[in-house]
Amino acid sequence: MRRMLLAPLLWLGTAYGTVSGVAVDQAAQDYQQHCQSCHGVNRLGGAGPALLPESLSRIKPDEIRRVIQNGRPASQMAAYASVLDPAQIDGLVNYLQQPPATPPTWNDEQIRGSHSLLADVSKLPVTPQHGADPLNLFVVVEAGNHHINILDGDRFEVLARFASHFAVHGGPKFSPDGRFVYFASRDGWISLYDLHNLKLIAEVRAGINTRNLAVSKDGRWVLVGNYLPGSLVVLDARDLSLVKTIPAVGLDGKTSRVSAVYTAPPRDSFIVALKDVKEVWELSYSGKADFEPRQIAAQDYLDDFSFSPDYRQLLATSRKAQGGQVIDLDSGKVVTDIPLPGMPHLGSGTYWKRDGQWVFATPNISKGLISVIDFKTWKLIKEIPTLGPGFFMRSHVNSRYAWTDVFFGPDNDAIHLIDKQTLEIAHTLRPMPGKTAAHVEFTRDGRYLLLSIWDTDGALIVYDSNTLKEIKRIPMNKPSGKYNVGNKIEFAEGTSH
Ligand code: DHE
Q1: Where in the numbering of this chain does the Cytochrome c domain appear (predicted)?
Q2: Could you tell me the CATH number of the domain that includes residue 481?
């Protein structure tokens, strides 16, 4: 095993105060001896997830300590409380939150080296082999134990279940015919799965810390956006082989993290939000598809965005700013600002027609309110107070309501149903009192919907979307996002894109 490179004797200021270089040395040795075989040289990840500050930023230090002490149930992570003393464990907790002495890299050679083909698509049947309606399947991410479920959306039965990479995040994306689905994990692993044959086809690690992915309208390309390294990676959608990496460098030469990537079907392009330079990028995939970015100046850094229904404009927010900006993608100009308080979660917003006009509604992860905006005038129509900040919002063209969660705070077991015409909360459900209820996705016809009980002893609950009666409860460990194939490939009104 390669010796870890250590920082010279220095004093590191951390959340725990000051740590001597000796403690860092000890922690580095402990890492090498006890962690490296699973978590990789330079903490890049291996059988276990990457342990870099970027990978751990969402986890509280106490939680890191608890996992080292007690292990993680239903995973290979063992308990170290009887192996390491409390000072060693504290040392490791500190050490893992510092950048490694050797800055991590992930270049084309490493991407190619991580690529594996798991099945030969040309030898697999081209029609669905599972007997269910292929356009009414659901892909369900079971976050508590890092699994994916494929669910029959008519019978509400699990057709297949398989282990995913650590922490799949963002929406899985589909090929235009709905046969293939693409997943991105926060650790940069991209997986290609065949829904007709219920088989994994290929995997590749496109980055060390990834945001999300998008698939081109023609189904030829997958674009991956990374925080670490700050880059875009274009993959061949047929087998995930590497086509091109594009460093995310702004016009001023500064490297940026990528906040999010989406496909814009009517534009034949990918749209990219950057987190550290004030630019939006458009990468055309029509014609010669050279993926040269068109760099559009923005007024602010972008964390999150959503499109107008015709994909001509995007509505974007920065978590640092107090508001949103509308950018016209044709002219490349910022059209207007929008008063959006708190931290609107635009990527999880939804739109519908009200009195013949498109409106857009977004949840807010720091304030208990839903902002409803007129897509034509960009004026705020209403702020609907909720029982607490929420993450996700969903509807369907055949649903009278938009469903939104109260993800944070004492009322996190509540779900609000907002009447799409009156903009009032018509119902508040508490499907499992005391347990977080979140994220909804409708069947293709909108008759039923699936809701997550985001808990270790959680469940998927199927509701009749008209009578609001519970139809079925399927036990699951922290089910998070659910995605209906038909709604996704049709970019249906009410669902996320
Ligand atoms: Fe997400 C989607 C960003 C934290 C679960 N989240 C997305 C998307 C973005 C995003 C840009 C859209 C991607 C797409 O459609 O491909 N998420 C962020 C953040 O910036 C934030 C606040 C902080 C972070 O560190 O990333 C964040 N997200 C979370 C969580 O803590 C959640 C609740 C649990 C988890 O899995 O990490 C979470 N995000 C989700 C889910 C989606 C998502 C389930 C897909 C929503 C959909 O319906 O399409």
Answers
A1: 22-100
A2: 2.130.10.10
